[in-house]
Structures are given as structure tokens and as C-alpha cells.
Design a protein that fits this description.
With about 45 residues, this protein is mainly α. It is about 50% helix and about 0% strand.
Length: about 45
């Protein structure tokens, strides 16, 4: 079985979500995207 709620899978999905605006060319950095929660995850 695939572990869907492991820390590594959650991190992978979170990174994917935060990188989407960058990959689509909307912003240069994830933290520049107005609707991103990336700043909440930054330490």
C-alpha cells in the first residue's frame, strides 16, 4: 500500500502547490504569489 499521509508525501504535495504559480510563469518566487501560504511554512 502507498502511505498517503506520511510527512514526505505531504511535503511533496505542499511543494508542488507552492511551485505551481512559478511553473506557470505568474511569479518568480512562490512567496510573491498573493494567494500562497508559502510564507506560513517558511521558518
Amino acid at each position: 500500500p502507498i502511505e498517503l499521509w506520511s510527512k514526505s508525501v505531504i511535503q511533496e504535495k505542499t511543494d508542488y502547490i507552492h511551485q505551481n504559480p512559478v511553473e506557470k510563469g505568474l511569479v518568480f518566487r512562490p512567496e510573491d504569489y498573493l494567494y500562497s501560504s508559502v510564507v506560513d511554512y517558511a521558518g
